[in-house]
Amino acid sequence: MAELGAEISQLVPAPQRRHAVLLIACGALAFAAMGAMAKAASSAIPTFELVAARSAVTWAVMEGIRRQLGVPLRFAKLPVLAVRTLAGFAAIALYFHALRYIPLGEAVLLNNASPVLTSLAAVAVLGERLTWTKGIALLVALAGLWLLLGARDLSTVAGQGAMLGAASAVSGAIAMVALKKAGSHNRAVLIVWALAAVSTLGSLLLAGGDWLVPSPREGWLLVGTGVTAAVAQLLMTSGYRRLEASEASVYSFLTPLFSILLGMALFSERPGWRAGVGGLLILSAGIGTALRANSPASTKA
């Protein structure tokens, strides 16, 4: 996201630091609102229809930015980029499908295990060094996942929904590792463009006959899901241009907090102690990983 912010800086100036914090916080709220709208629509609208609506709006925004920057549609490292794009598509679809069965806050918390899993996968795939910090963060995140998943009977619909949320985090980690390999060879705007395009087309194909004409309320929710996703992406990206990556990453973890609050307000969700402690462990591991990954010592290594 920081790379995309650098490219957008060519179009508009970067905000002041205090405004950047506000932009990231508003972006986190917009991402939470996207999840809330998707959850509200999921009771009637098929998952791939939701993913298509979200991705189509994001693609339209990225296409506009691409044209403004004058970036040609030329891609490098196509096999790695394909892995990043398909894994990202799977992560979005699994997350949206999980929203049908489990509370909004829990789905977002499970999804936020992805940064820690990315750190582990980078050791195995990219040959990065496994440090004590990474190891401890992984153990903490796994303990949080155990609490969240162990709070449910995995043979039930809700338990399977929790597994979908965990699978979304794994897919997201695969996408991020692939991004590390493909990112240095492709413009950031093209990487996001490709994900949005493939997610839109893939959803249309996989939906098949499972497609419903939405009611006016459901139509607004579909549009809102796409618009809030695009707005959140732009707000977060704009904020990342001014702040250091470590600080911006910490503020981005406001999304789970906003999601829990929206879940309580809109869906009468009341997280139990296992979900609360498990979520706190996952967020702590994620924040610790983000801070360590962007520290000067880590950057030099």
TL;DR?
This protein has 301 residues and is mainly α. The chain has 14 helices and no strands. It starts with a helix and ends with a helix.
How far apart the termini lie comes to: 22 Å
Average pLDDT confidence is 84
Q: How many β-strands, per DSSP?
A: 0
Determine the number of helices (DSSP H or I, runs of at least 4 residues).
14
Question: How much of the sequence is in beta strands?
Answer: under 5%
Helix content: over 70%
Let me know the largest β-sheet: none
Describe the structure.
By secondary structure, the protein is mainly alpha-helical. The protein has 14 helices and no strands. It is globular. It starts with a helix and ends with a helix. The mean pLDDT is 84.
